[in-house]
């Protein structure tokens, strides 16, 4: 029998009490508004509600933000052991995310944060409030519009199991240990992915240090154009011609952030900008130069302020070879020297002046085959890492919820 089972048998053989947040609170109150413009590099530590979703997990010891205490009216504070709830959010299923503060500073709570003071183990409460059952309670009855809101009364109504402190601390120890193991595995897999990507980049850059190559400007070997450059908002449709953005272009791959379409009529008026299989699509604004080859899936799409490159003679230059070169460090350095100084924007004329080393067609094929192999290996590891992390998260959630589910003690 485990130590946890021993403790439960000894300290609560008849079950565990379930209590509402209102019942365990020694105090509970809302924070006071801190505007984005009032966040400073120094001053009193503070937390704004959005940071609870984006920056912190189960617990934290230091605030990433500060503010000038003198400029905040009706300031509200939190201290070691307090639980913070974000009562405004974008998703019903995430509303009222909570975190425990384990630092030693006196900190300020921003608006749309609820501060809970209590006498329980703070980490235990934060774990208990992160279970699926707790989230169902947080999400019930919420109406979603542009934002979702909770409230102090809704927070007070959440019921969680409250075993004796010794049991709370043993559960915290178990979950902390489980979390550490997961993080160690994630770090190991991430290190493997990083190593493979570096290896891929080394081989890719070496491949373009070729002797006996001829050198030509992009304008000499390909036709280029800029994708749609005017607003397309009124031309968007539920179906039609797929629209590709700069943010969708990854090295050698297209990964859609959002699937968007424009009308076929509008696309027909811009037929010269339609992408065809084996065209190269390149980032024009942002991570300039990053490129991918259009395959069957995206044949017939159209880009928005992207650069399209169509090789004139694919018997002389393989589009896949040119794409790999555009993604190389050497080419990226050349591109960086040609971008507009105050922002990442690659001018089409400057792009056309890029000089490309062109070996024989057979060597191009060997380079493409080798780099495709390393690219696939890196992506396989990346996909495997994401799948492993997702599986571990599900396993962790199941394990956490099981640990925090008790036989409820009958009330006399």
Reported CATH architecture of the largest domain: Alpha-Beta Complex
Q: Helix tally?
A: 13
Q: Indicate the proportion of strand residues.
A: 15-25%
Tell me the helix content: 25-40%
CATH class of the largest domain: Alpha Beta
Number of domains: 3
Q: Spans of 5+ residues with little confidence (pLDDT < 50)?
A: none
**Termini gap:** 30 Å
Rg to the nearest angstrom?
A: 28 Å
Question: Which term fits the overall shape?
Answer: elongated
Mean pLDDT: 91
Structural class: alpha+beta
How many strands, which pairing sense, and closed or not: the largest β-sheet? 5 strands, mixed
The CATH topology name of the largest domain reads: Adenine-n6-DNA-methyltransferase TaqI, Chain A, domain 2
Would you give an account of this structure?
The structure is a single chain. The chain has 412 residues and is an alpha+beta fold. The protein folds into 3 domains: 1-15 and 164-209 and 361-412; 18-162, DNA methylase specificity domains (Adenine-n6-DNA-methyltransferase TaqI, Chain A, domain 2, Alpha-Beta Complex), CATH 3.90.220; 214-358, DNA methylase specificity domains (Adenine-n6-DNA-methyltransferase TaqI, Chain A, domain 2, Alpha-Beta Complex), CATH 3.90.220. Helices cover 38% and strands 20% of the residues. It has helices at residues 3-11, 21-24, 49-54, 122-128, 132-139, 152-156, 165-207, 218-221, 264-269, 319-326, 329-336, 348-352, 361-403, and strands at residues 18-20, 27-30, 39-40, 44-47, 59-60, 65-67, 77-78, 83-86, 88-89, 98-101, 107-109, 113-117, 148-149, 159-161, 214-217, 222-226, 236-237, 241-244, 249-250, 253-254, 260-262, 280-282, 291-293, 302-303, 307-311, 355-358. The strands form 8 sheets. It has a 5-stranded mixed β-sheet. Helix 1 (3-11) runs antiparallel to helix 7 (165-207), helix 4 (122-128) crosses helix 7 (165-207) and helix 7 (165-207) packs antiparallel against helix 13. It is elongated, with a radius of gyration of 28 Å. The protein starts with a helix and ends in a 9-residue tail after the last helix.
């Amino acid at each position: 029998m485990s130590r946890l089972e021993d403790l439960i048998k000894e300290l609560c053989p008849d079950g565990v009490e379930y209590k509402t947040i209102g019942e365990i609170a020694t105090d509970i109150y809302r924070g006071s508004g801190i505007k984005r413009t009032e966040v400073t590099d120094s001053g009193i530590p503070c937390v704004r509600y959005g940071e609870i979703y984006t920056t912190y997990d189960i617990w934290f010891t230091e605030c990433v933000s500060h503010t000038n205490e003198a400029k905040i009216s009706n300031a509200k504070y939190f201290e070691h052991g307090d639980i913070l709830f974000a009562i405004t959010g974008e998703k019903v299923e995430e509303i009222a995310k909570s975190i425990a503060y384990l630092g030693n500073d006196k900190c300020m709570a921003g608006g749309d944060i609820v501060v809970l003071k209590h006498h329980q183990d703070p980490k235990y409460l934060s774990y208990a409030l992160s279970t699926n059952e707790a989230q169902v309670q947080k999400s019930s009855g919420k109406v979603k519009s542009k934002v979702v809101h909770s409230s102090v009364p809704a927070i007070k109504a959440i019921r969680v199991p409250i075993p004796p402190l010794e049991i709370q601390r043993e559960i915290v120890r178990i979950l902390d240990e489980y979390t550490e193991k997961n993080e160690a595995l994630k770090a190991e897999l991430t290190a493997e992915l990083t190593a493979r990507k570096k290896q891929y980049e080394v081989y890719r850059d070496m491949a373009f240090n070729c002797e006996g190559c001829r050198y030509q400007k992009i304008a000499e070997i390909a036709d280029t154009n800029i994708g749609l450059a005017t607003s397309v908002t009124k031309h968007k449709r539920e179906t039609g011609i797929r629209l590709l953005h700069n943010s969708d272009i990854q090295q050698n791959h297209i990964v859609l952030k959002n699937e968007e379409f424009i009308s076929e009529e509008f696309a027909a008026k811009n037929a010269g900008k339609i992408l065809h299989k084996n065209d190269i699509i390149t980032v024009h604004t942002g991570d300039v130069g990053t490129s991918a080859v259009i395959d069957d899936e995206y044949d017939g799409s159209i880009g928005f302020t992207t650069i399209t490159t169509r090789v004139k003679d694919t018997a002389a230059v393989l589009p896949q070879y040119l794409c790999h070169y555009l993604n190389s460090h050497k080419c990226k350095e050349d591109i960086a020297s040609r971008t507009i100084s105050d922002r990442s924007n690659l001018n089409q004329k400057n792009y056309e002046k890029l000089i490309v080393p062109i070996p024989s067609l057979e060597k191009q094929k060997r380079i493409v085959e080798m780099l495709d192999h390393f690219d696939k290996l890196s992506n396989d590891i990346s996909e495997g890492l994401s799948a492993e992390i997702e599986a571990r998260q599900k396993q962790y959630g199941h394990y956490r919820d099981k640990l925090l589910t008790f036989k409820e003690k009958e009330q006399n």
